[in-house]
Amino acid sequence: MADEELDVRLKAHVLSLTLTGELLEAERRERVRRADTAASLRRLNSLFDSAVHLHPPSATSGLVQFYEILSRGHR
């Protein structure tokens, strides 16, 4: 394959990727436009509640334990 032919193929490939990207972006924007935000938030809220129920948060933020681990390196 000659260098000129390779250049032509690569340019065509880049052009097709650019066009594909534009089509995918247009589809993404349309999906976002049509999304029912309130329904999505209700679903996410129930998923969050489920996650908290299955994995309750710890009593601390972990900051104290983090600094304890860091201080071990200074000893």
Furnish the topology, listing elements before pairings.
Elements: H1 3-34, H2 37-54, H3 63-72
Any descriptors?
mainly alpha; flat; 75 residues; 80% helix
How would you briefly describe this protein structure?
This protein has helices at residues 3-34, 37-54, 63-72. The protein is mostly helical and 75 residues long. The relative contact order is 0.05.
> Unreliable runs, pLDDT <50, ≥5 residues?
none
Distance between the termini: 64 Å
Reading the helices and strands in chain order gives: HHH
Backbone structural class? mainly alpha
How large is the radius of gyration? 26 Å
| Individual helix count | 3
Number of strands: 0
Report on the biggest sheet. Answer: none
Strand content: under 5%
Number of domains: 1
Q: Estimate the global geometry from the Cα principal axes.
A: flat
Estimate the helix proportion, in percent: over 70%
Multimerization status: single chain
Protein described:
It is flat, with a radius of gyration of 26 Å. It is 80% helix and 0% strand. The longest helix is centred in the N-terminal third of the chain and has 32 residues, at 3-34. The relative contact order is 0.05. It is an all-alpha fold and 75 residues long. It contains three helices and no strands. The chain has one domain (3-72).
